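Input/output pair, single chain:
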Amino acid sequence: MTTYTAPLQDSAFVLEHVIGFDQLCETLNHSEITVDLAKTIIEEAGKLASEVLSPLNIVGDQQHPVTSAGQVTETPGFSQAYQQYIDNGWPTLTAPEEFGGQALPNVIGTAVNELWHSANMAFALCPMLSQGAIEALIAHGSPGLQQQYLPKLISGEWTGTMNLTEPNAGSDLAAVACKAIPDGNALKIIGQKIFITWGDHQMTPNIVHLVLARLPDAPAGVKGISLFIVPKYIIDENGQLGELNDVNCSSLEHKLGIHGSPTCVMNFGDQGGAVGYLVGEANKGLSYMFTMMNHARQSVGLQGLSISERAYQQSRQYSQERIQGLNAQGEKAAIIQHPDVRRMLMAMKSGTEAMRALALTAAADIDLAHNNQFEQSEKQQQQKRVELLTPIVKGWMTEFAQELTSLNIQVHGGMGFVEETGAAQHYRDARILPIYEGTTGIQALDLIGRKTLSDNGQSLKQLLAEIQSTAELLTNHDNSQLQQIGEKLGHALDHALTATDWILENAANNKLLAGNVSFDNLMMMGYLVGGWLLAKSAHAASVLIDQENDYGHAFLATKINTAVFYSHYYLPRVSQHKDIVCTGLVSILDLSAEQF
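Output:
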């Protein structure tokens, strides 16, 4: 098993020189928050990640949570780690000050969350879901509910969950059957939810469930879904925890990966009805839940980066230690000296760095979309960029993680297939990422439908214009490496523009086209945006490389080389996906069921 070390230098570089963190904070009217403060915060988070959470990762994989009498007991060591997590104030990082938060920019929270998920994804899912619940209550909760629940959630004293899925209602939430029956001043929630991450545990005295259910007079379909708070323990008139609510975990799912995260079947109302409280207005629950869902989608995309970074670090360490075969001089050598191992390591390194740049860029865009210094039109424009990038972050990064964590097993050779090395755990843990919080197919349909066709490609073309500017800047540079990157990026952009125009021209005349090509369109955009951000990174590194700075010549030179590798190795995939998009695939995919 390998140790985990937070990638502090690369995170700091992206914040400082790709995003322009100090300028971002000035725009947000937070000039007192600087990149130096961000670096300090990330460094401190790295200590908890590497020293406390990382050693528990294998423990969670081997010692699963257990359930008894409707109560779940978490993996040994997790409760103590969680207490340390909240004692250090980490849950409060980006939350509003009025409810006990520190109100730091979202992008800092994203950089820190990467570390938690790399160190121990099963553990980090618990605070991740709480953060989503916080977002939903801030946006849609009444002042009374906010005052009652947000301080405890933000401090980490209580945790939150998201309860959508039912046995007959997976991605199709129109089929939600859970009931909310009026009962005096409250409601009785009756039904069952499945796949509820951290649905129960003993780490905190209360758990706040956000539950989708239907009121008796609700219209059919998605228009009749409401959102409710259902606490594990009912809060009395004095604000103290009272009796146990009628909600319990009837069983735990036995999963391929993330074994340390209890995935619960939750029963509401076995004894007549769990007490619940309506969030916002009736029958608007689905739109409210999407506040939480969209937060989760960016967070799951971040998990794709996190688990890939963890796998890369393991590969790098193993390849430096494993002696096998001869080097070019005919001497016994570590396998890192073998060309194919180096290819795999650079494929993993460049992929993770592209994902990190995208995750942090998307997080900074969220900060700008919420910036009260902007006019409403500016905020709306920034929100469109957030909405455009979200399916790319969630879909492309989680699909990419499958490839990169698999490469880790390949670097280990036969030992990668053996559980004791730990390589298999990262691969297994990563496999859920393209599925939960909206499958890749759902993300792909979202990108091509709501985010491209709905506005005739305007938001997408604004992004492509920015990529064009970067490609031209590098193509005309006097540095030959930057020229290579710029030329490759420009070629890839041409293919993406061709595919986008083709979609816009043909989708209206063929109802099957968007669905048939959506996956390849999403992957095409992911590789392109990743290449664009690495190109920006390379340009920034070239400016700094001859100056005195904190990064050093070796790091900056490697940054440029990594971008060159990505541009030759991954950017050609844009062309491959474009070719598939522009065939439409209609004649192949529009077959009768018997032909599959």
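The mean pLDDT is 95. The CA atoms of residues 171 and 438 lie 7 Å apart.
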